[in-house]
Amino acid sequence: MPSSEPGRRRWSIVVILVLLGSLLVGCGKGTVGYGSTAGILRIAMTAGNIPFPSTPPDQGYEGYRFVGNNIYDGLTRFNLDQSKTIPTPQPALAKSWSISPDKLTWTFHLRRGVTFQDGTPFNADAVLFQFNRMLDKKFTYYDTIDAPRYAASFLQFKSWHKIDDYTVSVTTKHPYAWLSYDLASVYFPSPAVVKKYGNTNYNAHAIGTGPFTIKKYVDGQVMILQANDHYWRGRPKLNEIVLYPMPEAATRLSALESGEVDWAEVPSPDALSQLKDDGYVTYMGKYPHGIMPRFNLFRKPFKGNIKLRKALNYALDRVGTADLINNVGYPAKQYVYPGHPDYAPDNPGYHYDPAEARRLLAEAGYKPGQLHLNMAYPTGGSGNMFPDIMMQKLQADFTAIGVEVTLEPMEWDTLTTISLATLKSPQWKNIDILWSSPAAGMIPTGYATTFQCMQSADTPNASGICNKQMQADYQKASSSFDPKTSHKYLQDMMNIAVNDAYFLFWMHDLNLRVMSPKVHGFVEPKSWWVDFDNITVGG
Amino acid sequence: MIQLTLRRLAMAMLILFGVSVVIFLLMNVLPGDPVATLLGPDASNADRLALRHSLGLDKPLPTQYVDWLGRTLTGDLGYSQYRRAEVLSLINAAWVNTAILAGFSALFGLVAGVALGFAAGARRGKVVDKVISTFGMAGLSIPSFFVAIILLTFFAARWRWLPAGGTSLSGAGQGGLGEFVRHLIMPVVAGSLVTLAITARVTRASIVEAYQADFVETLRAKGLTGLQILRHVFKNALSPVLTTSGLQIGYLLGGSVLIETIFQWPGIGLLLYNAIEARDLVVVEGTTLVIAGTFVLINLLVDLLQAVIDPRQRYALA
Predict the structure, then answer these.
(1) Which residues 438-477 of A have a C-beta within 8 angstroms of B?
(2) Which residues contact B130 (CB under 8 A, 6 or more apart)?
(3) What was the ipTM of the complex prediction?
(4) What whole-number percentage of chain A has pLDDT above 70?
């Protein structure tokens, strides 16, 4: 063999050294990290793509939080600049409104002098343009995709009129107190831009009246928002917001630690202590978000079997689950968190009591080992906390009382379509329990899809919940113009939901996010949305 | 040769047809509803039915397939209602990025693989051989996503030497060749590890086999130097390396879903990942077809190239 030749040995060594050297090229010099840039806030989102700047945006509430609320305004806006109470609607593009004595017609007085980012005026015509675009199928610019996506916000609209250039009215189908909530997320695009590019090409040219305007938008990669110098509330303090889609938690964490972003959504809870040690600022706080799986009430074993539903609620070791996720969530007693205005007082909910769970299971007609359940849950996705580890704990908790659970992991988007198809549909009827991660109590209209018998005009409740008293409570709350009375009805609704164990009341989220210490002025509201106007970034 | 080319082309077309049927069926039996995903939870059932009708999704599956195939054959991969863009334009933009990543990954993986395999084969049984073989086995065994996360942890998060993701081509203010290279390093290293390892192993085995061939003894007897013999050995060992390289280039050009997702590299893999998440059927179908087409085409080219440089292969393939 030629291996003994010294020339070849040298040659081999040279090859290996060259390769190792090539691995290190670029790693060693001139690389000191990016650090922060004054006035520029760079954010790693959990979304897999840049949310479309459409009205409404996509990518769930991340789309509203980072894109929608920054490019656009609604007639109303939530007071997100405080962290004490659940935000409520405040004047925005409508500087005031009045309600007719019959409680059916709302008259909105529009703010004068507001312009879209393309310089065109915001007025009653612009409002009606968007209303028609979403509601009138005969309107030239009716949007066949975005209109159905906005349907819940326009559900109570009966008619809408221009009174003068700065006054519009909306008449609702019934006395409806929550129109100002609905209108906070109804954004207004520049009619001139929609007319110029059409609905199909609008996204690439999106223009609103909001605090930021799109400077650069590369689908799938980056969106750069630039401060709107002419914003009607005053120019925001930031010069730019840069949004990056980073669905992988490891990537978000690395991007933060390498100084490429200043703000990372939902890092892994395992990294918490390391992040704190490294000087990053972590934010956690109570806000309206929970993990509340739903029982399939269209059939046995849960239909008509309250004891079984209660048994499973007592079987859940919520404190243990919270420990497993480093306490970035906390045990749920009800659908909304304690302290929420809709929280039912004097109802302690369920605690961990395996003995009580076994007793109720027996009373429900099942011996240990007799009941086998299928539970569908997402493997990830915005607002789902940490499903894999939580589900393993749930499975162990149920096994401990003699109930077997088969876990059915699936993509988040697939799971959301189950809600629309309902657990009655042939494709999904084998599912006994369905994962659910509602923005529980962020806006009162959010209860409609889960607590009402019909989730939309022609689609029943996804899990088959249909309780006449809860239905009546919701209707009375939505037609009550006194917030205290409204909350009373909703408290009663929550009380029934707990007593009848319509959900697995499991975990409330603490909304973990982490930022560079150079980010200042951030207020963590009790909301999924954030006010960016007063945030600053030091150099 | 012409007959061989035509035969291989016909087979390639047949494979692509098969792939198109499988892709179409798979996407239609997977759980999830593209219309529900597109319109969101607030849309009424009537709205969903209307959109389903306008997209032709209420037609029987065979009709949908024939419609889709007909459009595809004319070069129209459809329009993504979800992304509000032509599928072809989405694929074009992503494919350029994947080609850049694949090109550098192939260059690194193949050159390094051949060099390491060559060094190991030439030093069979020695320390160099054992070290390289161990690294080769590790490269094949360790999942690329794990390597990616390790690289991110140290090179991006801990030492801050390299950016964690994205490209400088469309980033926020970071530009220049240096930035471009810095964004490439980690995805290239993580993505080319399998290519490097396979190429090294195949090259090593091929070199060892070639050294054992009779012609080497003849060359020695004729008095050729070690380096001259090595040149002949290398040429004879090249054929299996070429086959493997073709497969690897095809694999890299198909885009690595995991690598592109972890490093947010906006290529065809990331496009596919996002499309599957959103049940964007037309994009999934178009993207998968392009990936399969690339793979088939590269293999076709490799087969033909082999036939050109090695007459024995010409007969074998025929």
Answers:
(1) 449, 455-459
(2) none
(3) 0.72
(4) 93
